[in-house]
Prior knowledge:
The chain is of the alpha+beta class. It contains 4 helices and 6 strands.
Amino acid sequence: MPVKKASYVDLKVSSRSGQGAAVLGALSAAGVDLLAFTGFPDKGKAQIDLIAQDLSGVRKVARKEGWRIGKAKRCFVIQGRNAVGSVHRHLKKLADARINVTAVDAVAAGKGQFGMILWVKPKDFAKAARKLGAR
């Protein structure tokens, strides 16, 4: 199961319908290829995390659209064959290394595949990358 190191920026938007579609539409129109996208409520607004292998395209669109994006941070994107214990296996490696997982999103992706985004504290990123075999 490949574990990729990835970068992301967060974007705060108003919590109204269509905001996520507008953000993704602008990125799509510019040909920006995201590894993952996640959004959730945050103190009366919404936070969108834009996860990419290379953030230069995201930054270019953000400048054009007038978005105020946060500083780049790191996470892991994990993809693989979906089976009982697929997500557990990765979380157990980190637990055994006493690395706290800040957040995780995982989903069965169909056709026997799954995907997961996993966040740890910046101070733990290098150690987590080694434990997960991330490239």
